[in-house]
Each structure stands twice: as structure tokens, then as C-alpha cells.
Amino acid sequence: MTYGRRYSTGTVFFEFIRRGNVVKVSAIDARTGTEVSIVGDPKAGQEAMKRVAARKLEYVMAKRAAGKNPPDGHA
């Protein structure tokens, strides 16, 4: 499933993929296409996993804006 939501970075799309006893959550910034992923316990709930993924996305985008991370995301 993919959901869009407004965050300090702008609109963020979330994708949830369940694999066995874990969920992979991808957060994608609509403006830049920057994408990050986390893996979590489904028991944590979607809202909690969205918050974690959004914080990671904000962190990666801030690092990139400061020139501390190459554009392809590999540190």
C-alpha cells in the first residue's frame, strides 16, 4: 500500500510490504524522489513506522543538503 502525507519535507509517500514477520516501510519524498527504507515489527503499527521512516527521510535529506552524503545515498 502507498499513502501520501504532508511532513516538514513536503509530501511523503509511504509503501508497506509485509514479508513474513516483518514489514518493510519505504518513505519517498514527492519533490526530490529521495527514498529511504526501514524494517519493523508489524505489531508496532503503521503510524509508528511512518514516524520512524519520515524521521529517517528528513535526516537523509538534511545530510544531503549539507553536502555530507552523495546523491546516490551511499555513504
Q: How would you summarize what this structure contains?
A:
The chain is α+β, with helices and mostly antiparallel strands and 75 residues long. It contains one helix and four strands.
Distance between the termini: 29 Å
Report the total helices: 1
Largest sheet: 4 strands, antiparallel
Structural class: alpha+beta
Q: Could you estimate the helical fraction of the residues in percent?
A: 25-40%
Strand fraction band?
35-45%
- Please tell me the overall pLDDT: 86
Spatial arrangement of strands, main beta sheet: 1-2-3-4
Radius of gyration: 12 Å
Label the overall shape.
elongated
Number of domains: 1
Structural topology:
Blueprint: E1 2-7, E2 10-19, E3 22-29, E4 35-40, H1 46-65
Antiparallel strand pairs: 1-2, 2-3, 3-4
